[in-house]
Structures are given as C-alpha cells and as structure tokens.
Amino acid sequence: MLAASTQPIKLPDAPSDWLNAEKERVAEERKKFQDATSASPRKLSNELQQLAVQSDYYLLRRHAHEIGVLRGYFGQTDSAWAAMIALPGLLLVSGRYDEACSVLLAYAGMVDKGFMPSGFTAEGKPIYRSIDAALWFVEAVFLYTQVSEDFEMIERKIYPVLRRIIKYYETGTYFGVHADGDGLIQQDDVKAGITWMNATVRDVPV
Length: 206
Fold this sequence. Notes:
Oligomer: single chain
Radius of gyration: 19 Å
Shape: globular
Distance between the termini: 40 Å
Largest sheet: 2 strands, antiparallel
Number of helices: 6
C-alpha cells in the first residue's frame, strides 16, 4: 500500500491497522468540515459532505494563515488561476469563508505588476505566465463578498490590490498585456502562451 500526504502523517505498523487509521482520518476530516461549515446557510447532504471533505485534498496549507490550491495530482503546483476558478466549489458553497479568505489573501500578496502566479518553481518562486489569473481573482473576490459580506477585510486588504491589477491591465504589464481602445485586454507578445492553456507548439501559442 502506498501512502502520500502533504501533511505529516503517522504510519501504522501492521497492515490491519491501515483501515482503522483511514477511518479515523476521514472521521477527523469530516469533523473539521462540519466545524468549518457550521455557519453556512446551506445544509449539505451526506453525499455532498463527503465530496466536500475529499475536496480538502486540493488545499495546500503552507502555514497556519496561507492556503493555496493545487491544480491536480501529481507533480502539479498550486496556481492562482486554478485557485480562483475552484474557490466557489471548494470553499464558498460549503461556507468555509475563513479558508476562502486565506486563499484570497495568500494570492493577493503575490501580485506582481498586476499578474498573479500561474505556478511555482521547485524552489517556490512564483511564475507569472497567466493573462487571466488576475481577472479570475476579481471574480472570486466578488463571489466571496456576496456570500461572506466581509466588506471590512475587502476594503482594507483586497481593494488596494484590485486597484493595482486594474492599473496595470489598463496601462501595460508583462508580455505587452494592456487594454485596447475598446477596453478589451490584448497582448503584444504573440509568441507567449499565457492564456488558460499556457501552451505553445513550435513557438506558436495554442
């Protein structure tokens, strides 16, 4: 049997202990989920609760107050683009507003010239190659505000970041990204694959 975790785990000694250990772990995760969602206006069915508990595996807890979202397993780092798209389903619909806030603040602190990280190097250095990650961030903030009504935090910590994003997308940032005369976002560096696929074939973005 193979065990993998992003968190420290205690490995059972005997094979017969694995099942009990897994049952205890799932029960603990379910308890954490129920505590975190106690304030949610929605009551989830047992099936949806189980799905929500499993979704916790995509949360990357760097430390107590910073949470990222993995793009997938295995070999995938966290990404602002994936985090903002996944935020409603992972955390908002189940009422886990504190953790959603931690995700928003974590990535807000990584904004550089209006861009958000599309990934990270093996050393943990942010990679900025996503034209739409910051735009998804704006949408995620809107959805978070609708359900949490945490206007004070947004005004103090998020609003200044939103202003910087808008400024750079208007005037210009990485890869020649800027707003044209109609207010539409375009990039001047046509050889850079920085859309949602972030892929190029023979130096041509796809």
